[in-house]
Write a structure and sequence with these properties.
Strand order of the largest sheet: 1-28-27-26
Order of helices and strands: HEEEEEEEEEEEEEEEEEEEEEEEEEEEEH
Helix content: under 10%
Number of strands: 28
Shape: globular
Structural class: mainly beta
Largest sheet: 4 strands, antiparallel
Distance between the termini: 46 Å
């Protein structure tokens, strides 16, 4: 029989070992576009250390941007909003972009608020290739795998009176047609529909691994919200053959979405813990495995909500944890412990608000805030692999002032989860 002292000592030892295995990070502020307003977002990170995302242009539109070392490539369409949400090591990227055609129903499928049609593209060898729909006008995309397959969702031609006729909390809407989860590729005209769970009418796929497994959400047009917020009644995993699996929930069917799947088939996402959950609070990050099912990852101390945005091949989960006022902190969940990424990044030039991506080398991308409240994309590299990097000597503030935190909340668009 173990004594209380022995159990306490074992617990302390396990915690110490977990901390010892958690690296410190060197953070690089990726900056913004020349002449643009002070905002940029790192949405994805591949194993070549290419960060994909968006940044504000001088005219205020969001433009698709790739960062690679000191290089920054603006590949957006001038005057139209766009963003990159996946890039593989072959340089293929998944892009959402407006086109100049006005949506005949004034839908805002991609939440830019312009009423223009929003289209899915594959970037390949510097050329944007428009991807097909299921009969509707609009599409939204997720990540791209090494085969060039892209997860996403696209409208069909089914008019649905249950869809929201006003703008949703995510900035999407009004919506008039159902939409289904799809996988595009690997060919430029290939599209494969992923059917929702029985009883559901809509779906969205947000992530796909190299085994062609995809994850996302399904529900009805009334209880689901398209990206950037991304949730439905059910978190779903689709096998390569299209078979759909309900991953369960942490207590309620209000907000559930599987946001990322790694090559081991492990899944990260978000699930509501009670029926009173809202997009602002009442939901927690989760880790799902076939062996253990869904595990609640909790929040940082004092916070009321958390989000799991991506899971790496090593099983580490990144995302954010939020307090009751909606102030986010970037997180890294590793070996059963959730860490504030700011605590692991001494000397960071930014206060890290959200970690959106992690690659197989443990490098992390996301966005953070300057002392003035500007939002900048970042790359965080384990410091033992970044000793030769030239980093800013400016140290981040231990915390942001309340005035700056308020400014940050006002400047942050609805996040893409």
């Amino acid at each position: 029989m173990h004594s209380a002292f022995t159990l306490t000592a074992a617990t302390a030892l396990c915690a110490a070992l977990a901390m010892a295995q958690t690296p410190r990070y060197a953070v690089i502020d990726l900056g913004t576009l020349v002449g643009g307003t002070s905002s940029s977002f790192g949405n994805y990170l591949n194993d070549n250390r290419v960060v994909a995302g968006s940044a504000a242009a001088p005219d205020g539109t969001q433009q698709s941007v790739l960062w690679w070392g000191p290089l920054r490539m603006d590949i957006g369409t001038p005057g139209l909003n766009s963003g990159i949400f996946g890039v593989n090591t072959s340089g293929q990227a998944s892009i959402n972009a407006e086109v100049s055609t006005k949506d005949p129903y004034n839908e805002n499928f991609c939440a830019f608020g312009t009423g223009l049609e929003c289209v899915a593209f594959r970037l390949q060898r510097g050329v944007l290739i428009q991807l097909p729909t299921l009969g509707g006008n609009n599409s939204t995309i997720g990540t791209i795998n090494s085969k060039g397959e892209i997860a996403g969702a696209t409208e069909n031609s089914t008019r649905d009176p249950a869809c929201p006729t006003a703008v949703t909390v995510a900035g999407t809407g009004p919506q008039y047609f159902d939409y289904e989860a799809v996988v595009w590729g690997p060919g430029p005209s290939d599209i494969r529909e992923l059917h929702p769970l029985p009883g559901d009418t809509v779906g969205m796929a947000l992530s796909i691994n190299d085994n062609s497994q995809a994850v996302g959400a399904s529900g009805t047009c009334a209880n689901s919200v398209l990206p950037p917020l991304s949730f439905g009644a059910h978190a779903v995993l689709w096998d390569a053959d299209g078979t759909a699996h309900d991953l369960g929930n942490l207590g309620s069917k209000v907000i559930n979405v599987a946001s990322s799947i790694n090559n081991q088939g492990q899944v990260a996402g978000i699930s509501s813990v009670n029926d009173q959950a809202t997009p602002a609070q009442g939901h927690h990050a989760f880790l799902w495995t076939s062996a253990a099912g869904m595990q609640d990852l909790g929040t940082l101390p004092g916070d009321v909500a958390s989000v799991g945005t991506m899971i790496g091949d090593a099983g580490d989960v990144v995302g954010e944890s939020d307090d009751a006022s909606g102030n986010p902190r970037a997180i890294l969940w590793r070996n059963g412990v959730m860490h504030d990424l700011n605590d692991l990044a001494p000397g960071s030039p930014l206060f890290l608000l959200c970690s959106l991506a992690i690659n197989s080398r443990g490098e992390i991308a996301g966005f953070g805030a300057t002392e003035n409240g500007d939002i900048h994309a970042y790359l965080a590299t384990p410091s033992n692999a970044a000793a030769s990097e030239s980093l800013s000597a400016e140290s981040r503030p231990a915390t942001l002032s309340e005035d700056v935190r308020k400014l940050v909340r006002e400047r942050l668009p609805v996040r893409r989860f």
